[in-house]
């Protein structure tokens, strides 16, 4: 299929179910490489898991198989046949269809699975898959995604409480009208005086420090919430491991 990737049309949108399937394949490739590619059963379980999903779904295996067929026709995923021949497995082709960095893939994974998020939430969750050491690094990756049309946001990325989302929504979805990642007249950029000793500069520095503190508090709270999610995922991974051993005849 590698030689035929260029024959597929460009991908500009995914349906809700397609985003869920792609998000799960991406997530499991990052977090559980030993059990990846996924069987249909594991993929369905991942789509319907209660942790790190919004909204929680209840797809049947037949429904997921239909979505898999749709994504195969788009060149977005591929079927892998195991040596035992017992069951087909599925893997994503996002790295082949797009030139995303690993950080950008992790960011899109979280946005596919949960939708719009604040920078603090996104950094904490995507950081479980790849290292994102600072908000500035996150903003840099987000800006690259925006420039290529794969990201949208509610305003300037420098603003406190900004929310971002992917840009793969279908035309008839309301989220498609999410405010673009541009600065507008209603969201002016504050100019910082060059003289750092001026009262205005001190005020700006204090404001920036407070913003960083608020972001850190938000990330800390998100990490506490995600700990419970990780516990749920660990239980699911244990079940998938036992299933994998059974398929291999172990």
Describe this entry's structure for a reader.
It is a single chain. This protein is about 50% helix and about 10% strand. It is mainly alpha-helical and about 250 residues long. Among the domains are: about 15-95, Orthogonal Bundle (Arc Repressor Mutant, subunit A); about 100-180, Winged helix-like DNA-binding domain superfamily/Winged helix DNA-binding domain (Arc Repressor Mutant, subunit A, Orthogonal Bundle). A three-stranded antiparallel β-sheet has the order 1-3-2. A three-stranded antiparallel β-sheet has the order 4-6-5. A hairpin with a 6-residue loop joins strand 2 and strand 3. Helix 1 packs across helix 2 and helix 1 packs across helix 5. The radius of gyration is 20 Å and the shape is globular. The chain starts with 15 loop residues before the first helix and ends with a helix.
Strand residues, percent: 5-15%
The computed structural class is mainly alpha
Helix % is 40-55%
Strand arrangement across the biggest beta sheet: 1-3-2
Which radius of gyration do the C-alpha atoms yield? 20 Å
> Could you list the spans in which at least 5 consecutive residues all have pLDDT below 50?
179-205
Estimate the global geometry from the Cα principal axes.
globular
Q: What profile does the largest beta sheet have?
A: 3 strands, antiparallel
Mean pLDDT: 81
List the helices and strands in order.
Answer: HEHHEEHHEHHEEH
Layout: helices, strands, pairs:
Elements: H1 16-31, E1 38-39, H2 40-48, H3 61-73, E2 77-81, E3 88-92, H4 94-97, H5 102-114, E4 117-118, H6 119-126, H7 135-147, E5 151-153, E6 163-166, H8 199-247
Antiparallel strand pairs: 1-3, 2-3, 4-6, 5-6
Helix pairs in contact: 1-2, 1-5, 5-6, 6-8
